[in-house]
Amino acid sequence: MTNLRLLAPLAAALALGLAGCAEQPAGDAPGGETTAAAPLTEGNWTLDPAGSRLSYVSIKAGEVAEANRFDAMTGTVATDGTASLDIDLASVNTGVDIRNERMREIFFAVADNPTATVTAKLDPAAFAGLAVGQSLTRPLKANVTIKGVNSDVETEVLVTRVAEDRVTVVPTAPVIISTDMFDLTDELGELRALAELPSITPAVPVTFTLAFKRG
User: Fold this and answer.
1) For the segment 156-185, what is each residue's pLDDT rounded down to a tens digit?
2) For the chain, which domains are there?
3) Would you list the DSSP string of 79-137?
4) Nearest CA to 128 among 42, 211, 15, 45?
């Protein structure tokens, strides 16, 4: 369960990259056609929560895998390339009420640390030429903060401009985050003891689909 929380911020970092990590288009729309549209550099971009998903998988007792997610997040990418993503840690959803409560109160201590943040500085010129219907794969480096502890995260994302005013991003592979990246090992141990488990794996894979819309 603790592992899952770490994934969220990471995932948060990838999301920021979606609106600003395009360089040279990697391909044309189906049929070899491209659609002329206003450059991505025109206007600010806002995360569309309804079209975005951030999830992770925790493993307990060495072999029991459980899917988890965060249900609330916000994000923006400004015209100057400044990107930020805020993940509401209280929105963690493990599918079990008591686990949700322990994650909020013990692992994340949301009363004092309600939000995990992801920030990145992007080069607007790098993604100005992405046309509607085109996708490209780009590396992304972002800084993630959880409970006041910062850690840089590097990954690779597939960016697709699905419409003139809409961009989506998904990771090319799950992002692995561990508790020691954010000094959460003790909290993980406390969760393990409360659940009377022999182990909770400290590293977890995070996946996501993030959508940004212009304006």
Assistant:
1) 888 889 999 999 988 999 999 999 999 999
2) 2-214 (2.40.128.110)
3) TTSEEEEEEEGGGEE-S-HHHHHHIIIIIS-TTT--EEEEEEE--GGGGTTPPBT-EEE
4) 42
CA separation, residue 109 to residues 52, 104, 144, 189 (Å): 25, 6, 17, 15
At residue 21, the 3 state secondary structure works out as coil
**Mean pLDDT in the chain?**
84
The DSSP code for 71 is: -
* Beta carbons of 152 and 135 less than 8 angstroms apart: no
The answer to whether the beta carbons of residues 70 and 54 sit under 8 Å apart is: yes
pTM of the entire structure? 0.80
Question: How many other CB atoms sit within 10 Å of the CB of residue 205?
Answer: 20
